[in-house]
Amino acid sequence: MNKGSSDSGERRAGEGFKRELTAVIPHLRAFARGLCGRPDMADDLVQETLLKAWAARERFEPGTSMRAWTFVILRNAYLTDMRRARFRGEYDEGLAERILTAPADQEDPIHLGDLHRALQTLPPERREALLLVGAGGFSYEEAAEICGCAVGTIKSRVGRARAALSAMIEEGKIPRRDISDVEAHRAILDELEQVSGAEGSTPAD
Amino acid sequence: MSEPKDFPEKVVSKAAPRKKGTRQGKPRSDAAAGKDAKPEWADGLKRLYDSVVDEPLPDAFRDLLSRLDDDQP
Predict the structure, then answer these.
(1) Inter-chain contact A26–B71, Cβ cutoff 8 Å?
(2) What is the pLDDT of residues A102-143, one digit of tens each?
(3) For residue range A70-101, what is the model confidence (pLDDT) as tens digits?
(4) Is there a domain that residue A36 lies in?
(5) Domain that includes residue A121, residue range
(6) Do A122 and A191 share a domain, yes or no?
(7) Mean pLDDT to the nearest integer, B24-40
(8) What is the CATH number of the domain that holds A132?
(9) Contact A120, A37 (CB under 8 A)
(10) Quick one: which of A17, A56, B1, B37 has the most CB atoms within 10 Å?
(11) What is the CATH number of the domain that holds A50?
(12) Is A89 part of a structural domain of the chain?
């Protein structure tokens, strides 16, 4: 049978896809960690994303950005999980500690652990906008495509996120983790309610 | 307007064309940031992200990747 050659072609394509997918895992982990705060849940989210990406690999267009493509999958999985209230808005204590003990190149004006906690208090869509642009290095245009919204919307979300974080930092109102941040989580869920209400849909299972 | 989807329907972003010439190599610098006034902690956000990127990959991911192999038709 000459089916063998197309099989091996498929195999090669699968390998190429997998190589690219593997390369973006660290970025997926970083994005997920920023989104949901907790490292264990973030990694679960990344695994879920990898499986979905693999299942949908034929829809990936070679030559386009694997990172952007998988970020879309990850954020959608995150939003779905948030609606199921799997994430509790808890903080990544481990990360904060590792960063605090890591050799710092210079004196920090702010502890990164504080920054991480402050980030977690933002409504999810502002947090993700800021993560994409301010941490992931995406342009506003790319971030807008990932989030499926207008560029102006992304700019406004990033602006609001920055203003909120700046205010928190300047006023020294960084949430402490022992409050376990009921307030922040409630705010996030309220906001999410609005977002999902606006989308007028329920996520499919 | 859009429903949440598990997968992007179409190309999200072209990897290749990068006309503005601002993002080669280094992260966007002040010049590229243009009118956005970046707060002092902006660099911390990037370092927070990079600190996770630089972590060694947990075994769970290697396991998962190898399972994807078995999946291959």
Answers:
(1) no
(2) 444 444 556 788 888 889 889 889 999 999 999 999 999 999
(3) 999 999 999 888 777 655 444 445 555 554 44
(4) yes
(5) 108-199
(6) yes
(7) 51
(8) 1.10.10.10
(9) yes
(10) A17
(11) 1.10.1740.10
(12) no
